[in-house]
Amino acid sequence: FLEKTHAFDTETKARIGRKMVLVAVVTALILFATGALLMRLLHITGGAVAVAGGILLALLAIKMASGTTEKPHDETGIPVDPE
Q: Which end of the chain is flanked by fewer CB atoms within 10 Å, N or C?
């Protein structure tokens, strides 16, 4: 978020942040409401979800600990539309 919005003013950053949080909350509520049904339909156990979550967290931690592997992109000077 910080890397992508560093060129925007404070008001635009706050608006983008609110939109991101709103999307995350709505997605979480939908998954919370339909999660048990999806798990039952797809025959996924709670243990399998716990193992998959642990693997995802481990991969995220390894990526965060190893640092960035991509070179930073050069700024083109063209203003980006925040929408």
A: C
Nearest to 44 by CA among 33, 52, 55: 52
Dihedral over Cα of 5, 3, 1, 10: its sign: negative
Instruction: Judge whether 3 lies within some domain.
Output: no
> Are the CB atoms for 20 and 12 separated by under 8 Å?
no
Instruction: Please write the tens of the pLDDT for every residue from 44-63.
Output: 999 999 999 999 999 999 99
Question: What is the tally of structural domains in the chain?
Answer: 1
pTM of the model: 0.55
Residue 16 structural domain: 10-66
Comparing 1-5, 38-42, 76-80, the range with the smallest average pLDDT is 76-80
How far is Cα 18 from Cα 25, in angstroms, rounded to an integer? 11
CA of residue 58 relative to chain centroid, distance: 16
